[in-house]
Automatic annotation (TrEMBL), chain A:
The keyword 4Fe-4S applies. Gene3D superfamilies: Cytochrome-c3 hydrogenase, C-terminal domain, NADH:ubiquinone oxidoreductase-like, 20kDa subunit. This is hydrogenase (acceptor). Residues 64-210 form the NADH:ubiquinone oxidoreductase-like 20kDa subunit domain. The lineage of its organism: Bacteria, Pseudomonadati, Pseudomonadota, Gammaproteobacteria, Chromatiales. Residues 346-372 are annotated as: Disordered. PROSITE patterns: TAT (PS51318). It comes from the Bacteria. Its cofactor is [4Fe-4S] cluster; [3Fe-4S] cluster. Its EC number is 1.12.99.6. Its main location: other. Coiled coil: none annotated. The gene is mbhS2. InterPro entries: Cytochrome-c3_hydrogenase_C (IPR027394), NADH_UbQ_OxRdtase-like_20kDa (IPR006137), NiFe-Hase_small_C_sf (IPR037148), NiFe_Hase_small_N_sf (IPR037024), NiFe_hydrogenase_ssu (IPR001821), TAT_signal (IPR006311), TAT_signal_bac_arc (IPR019546). Heterodimer of a large and a small subunit. It comes from Allochromatium tepidum.
TrEMBL record, chain B:
It comes from Allochromatium tepidum. This is HupH hydrogenase expression protein C-terminal domain-containing protein. Belongs to the HupH/HyaF family. InterPro entries: HupH_C_sf, HupH_Hydgase_express_prot_C. Residues 1-23 are annotated as: Disordered. Gene3D superfamilies: HupH hydrogenase expression protein, C-terminal domain. Residues 27-139 form the HupH hydrogenase expression protein C-terminal domain.
Amino acid sequence: MRKRPDKTLGESLRDHGLSRRGFLKLCAATASLMALPPSMVPAIAAALEQARRPSVIWLSFQECTGCTESLTRAHAPTLEDLILDFISLDYHHTLQAASGDAAEEARFQAMEENKGRYLVIVDGSIPGPDANPGFSTVAGHSNYDILMETVEHAAAVIAVGTCAAFGGLPQARPNPTGAMSVMELVRDKPVINVPGCPPIPMVITGVVAHYLVFGRLPELDGYGRPLAFYGQSIHDRCYRRPFYDKGLFAESFDDEGAKQGWCLYRLGCKGPTTYNACATMKWNDGTSWPVEAGHPCLGCSEPKFWDAGGFYEPVSVPLTLGPTTLLGAGAAGAVVGGGLATLARKQRKEEAGARQPVTVDELEQKLSTTPP
Amino acid sequence: MSSLEPKIDPPAPGGSCPGATHEHGHALPILHEIRHALERLLAGGESTCIDLHSMPFGPGDLERLTAVLGSGEVQARVEALGPTLIRETAIPGVWLVDYRSLEDQRLSYQIEIAAIPEILRPRPEDLAESLGVLEARLAESGLDATPNASPPSS
Ligand code: SF4
Ligand code: SF4
């Protein structure tokens, strides 16, 4: 598994017997992967030829391994390509063969040999410095200590998944483990957030490919997410958008509207306030994605999505806009729709601080009063 | 999965997938883009490539697009880092290029508007080496090994 990143990627690929057409194809696939136009292929080829594989240390904290599962299902490039050719994955306690002291030794060695140049990928949230360290440990050390020690000489940190990026499920109220996100703890290093529950596999590899090709971090939005993948909302790229614009909504999961493929906004779709690439990159090798399967977007790539109200309740809208105004806004199209999304987003941020946990009683009451 | 035909799934039976039987109108803008690209190709020889992976297609959009483009006379297959399937559409100069991985999963699906898709041309570096390759293969074959063989013309 360990291979020192001493050769350029071009050299290493030639050693693997890759032909020049194969390399051109790799570049075309990489452009597609990074959501860059095909006209960038020559520039990508020149950069990849000279690139050196970065050493990567992957740390898993309070997580469900869904993010690693997602990555190992990536097909473009395959995980083998990624491990052997694109990066030198020096530590990943789920995937590596070594265990115990040998595994920890591999981490220290990678840190020492690549001081200032290695990438740290984190999945899972971290019990903060004031929390009981016993909630989550690796080899007897608290997640917090391991994170701080490992990032000290890193070039950058990539927080993969909503737990690492924003706290995710462990941080949902009442946050029993005092879970914090990477960016709340790591202040003196660049942190790139790749949220999603889990993130689209191609987005994980796309961010690493970007670092490899351009030797620097991608352009980020206000939440530290790469704009290439999180620059547009689900709603802006949704193929059901023409129905939203015409005010045609499914009202239940089996009504005529649902069968006609109308917009899922009223069924709780968080597409208007969610920034992710599902609508174009899709899931399961580009087969489909939740909205195409008839289910509203849950907003899994946004901060506090577990606490942002019911999954099946429409995105909260300002009280000044009643349902009728909303319908009008829907019919009025993209401009108003976008404005509405921005408003809802802003309001959600303001509300986030004041949300109350839902009790089981309340939930049951809601379920019994909601029409099926 | 060794068929040269890029996969076009049949419509879902009985419309079980919501909206499967409806058109979402996302094929038309791509067809317009192809028209502009063709105009540029005809005017100045400029080729264009459109990545279909980044399009917000709904069910049926891709099938609609490829149906309008139709099938031409040429099909080709490149074996390098897994197969790449190239198909000429009914419109000369408009090609469908399907890049697939070693496991035959789609890496990228592109439309190239060009005289010949880039992946089919020999790479310039390979072309520069081709005479040398021929000499080497000739030497290896033994056909050229007679002691009195005439020296290569200069
Ligand atoms: S609300 Fe949801 S289903 Fe409707 S157009 Fe927006 S993203 Fe698509
Ligand atoms: S559709 Fe929404 S909830 Fe589903 S994976 Fe994409 S961003 Fe997450």
